[in-house]
Amino acid sequence: MNVVLLGAPGSGKGTQAERLQKRYGIPHVSTGAIFRDEISKKSDVGLRVQEYVKSGGLVPDELTVEIISRRLAQSDCAAGFLLDGFPRTVAQAEALDGFLSKGKKEMDAVVSLELSEAAAVKRLSSRRQCPKCGKIYNLAFQPPKQEGLCDADGGALGQREDDKPETIRKRLMVFNDLTQPLIAYYRGEGILSTVNGDEGVDAVSRAIYEVLDRFKK
Ligand code: AP5
Ligand code: MG
Q1: What pTM was computed for the model?
Q2: What architecture (CATH level 2) is domain 2-215?
Q3: Which ligand is nearest to the CA of 86?
Q4: Most buried one in 114, 120, 188, 210, CB count within 10 A?
Q5: Which ligand is nearest the CA of 120, by number?
Q6: What is the 3-class SS of the chain, one letter each residue?
Q7: Residue 217, C-beta contacts closer than 8 angstroms, at least 6 positions apart
Q8: For 163-212, how does the pLDDT look when each residue is reduced to its tens digit (9 = 90+)?
Q9: What atom of ligand 1 comes closest to residue 129's alpha carbon?
């Protein structure tokens, strides 16, 4: 099953992807996570992308497409994948379609998580993440059992560098300008489903399962 999770910053893509990858047995591929990993390793790619990510702008399409094409060509993606944060522009969506059709594959579903800007800002400013395992928390909505520590491995929870108020605003603007048009793009392809992201985490998961269970092998 080849799936794209679409949605504004803070809409819950990463939170839901964690569950979906287990339910459907497909890898969660997040361009944001790949970039943050490269930045922390100070690799060539990391150095090339860090300013864009830090400022809340988009990494150029060409570099992003190159990196994701390499990732999707890995063997764990052969039976399907769950994309989070890619594509983010119409040019990226077209490149993805081209990449898939070369391998005689296609997208099965695009799930768009809908959330108001006010709710997204609230969620992002109280988000915390484990630097070791990547598990996502929220001080207001999904706090860890022990303050400041990851439930899974005891890692000291931190805040993402792009979760500062001014960077959150920039990311939301970029989403509205460049990523929102993908909703029309995928509606045109007939594979778009919208889900209300402004419910509790379990209710959002159930709504996504309703969409995706029919593709389960
Ligand atoms: P990326 O990492 O993809 O960030 P994003 O799209 O801004 O999305 P977030 O990760 O902030 O939000 P999310 O939807 O995953 O929400 P989460 O589940 O964490 O990209 C980062 C940067 O990398 C970009 O700005 C860009 O620079 C670059 N980049 C990435 N992809 C690119 C591409 N394709 N092209 C070019 N550049 C690219 O949830 C948020 C919070 O809400 C958490 O605290 C969570 O606990 C909480 N929460 C989640 N669901 C609920 C719920 N239902 N109720 C209450 N709280 C909830
Ligand atoms: Mg995310």
Answers
A1: 0.96
A2: 3-Layer(aba) Sandwich (3.40)
A3: 1
A4: 120
A5: 1
A6: CEEEEEECCCCCHHHHHHHHHHHHCCCEEEHHHHHHHHHHHCCHHHHHHHHHHHHCCCCCHHHHHHHHHHHHCCHHHCCCEEEECCCCCHHHHHHHHHHHHHCCCCCCEEEEEECCHHHHHHHHHCEEECCCCCCEEECCCECCCCCCECCCCCCECECCHHHCHHHHHHHHHHHHHHHCHHHHHHHHHCCEEEEECCCCHHHHHHHHHHHHHHHCC
A7: 1
A8: 999 999 999 999 999 999 999 999 999 999 999 999 999 999 999 999 99
A9: 44
**Ligand 1 touching residue 167 (CB < 6 A):** no
Hey, whose CA ends up nearest to atom 56 of ligand 1?
A: 141
